[in-house]
Amino acid sequence: MPFVNIRIVKQVIEKDPDGIKAKVQADVTASLAEAAGIPAENVWVTFDEIDETDWFAGGTRVKELRANS
C-alpha cells in the first residue's frame, strides 16, 4: 500500500486549501494507481502544511523567495 506525504507551503494553497488538496490527491492517487497497477483505494495521501517562514531553500526563507518572484 503506497503512502504519499506531500509537504506544501500553506500560503500557496490558502485561497482554496480543500479544493487544491482534493485535486492534488486525486491526481496523485490516479497516477500512482495506474503506474503501479493497483486499486486507487490502496493509495494513501497526506498533507503537511508548512508555513513559508519555516521552509528554506538554499538558505533563504521561502517567504522571501516568494516575495521576490
Describe it:
The chain is of the alpha+beta class and 69 residues long. It has one domain: Macrophage Migration Inhibitory Factor (2-Layer Sandwich), CATH 3.30.429.10. Helices cover 38% and strands 26% of the residues. The protein is built from 2 helices and 4 strands, in the order βαβββα. A hairpin with a 2-residue loop joins strand 3 and strand 4 (60-61). The longest helix is centred in the middle third of the chain and has 20 residues, at 17-36. The chain is elongated. The model has no long low-confidence stretch (mean pLDDT 96). Keywords: Isomerase. Residues 2-63 form the 4-oxalocrotonate tautomerase-like domain. One of its GO terms (molecular function) is isomerase activity. InterPro entries: 4-OT-like_dom, Tautomerase/MIF_sf. This is 4-oxalocrotonate tautomerase family protein.
